Give the backbone structure.
Amino acid sequence: MRFFVTVGNTRFDSLFKTLDVIAKKSQHEFIGQIADGSYTPKNFETFTFSQDISRYIADADAVISHAGAGSVFRLLENHKKLIVVFNTDRVDEHQKDLASFVESELFALTCWDLSTLENLIKQLSVFTPKPYIKDDFHETAHIIDYLFD
């Protein structure tokens, strides 16, 4: 299985350290977007940023992502098998709510502790996520009219 790993624009060195160990003994292929992280894995290719992240998403069989809203919803809209990892390297815990949401709705597997990541990667091959359906917001014009009338 080919995995794309993304952390958006947020450092998440502990995720990449964990995946480096997993990749060394795994048959899976990984490629990671490490943002401004200070740890560079030795057992798989990484890059900091890409103007064409869609290419990496399309080429992957599955994605491992931090629980950032922009990343998660984009991946759900692309119907990728997904493991969402709550970023414990962050001081704030704003990703916790989104991670809980995708877990409770069965949109993705959720990793709360990096020691369970290898097992979640194994589970992903038999996991069937609930299809995510984007609910477009059509009230923008009404809000603008209300604010500026």
Q: What stands out?
A: Helices lie at 13-25, 53-59, 69-77, 95-104, 117-124, 140-148. The first strand starts at residue 2 and ends at 6.
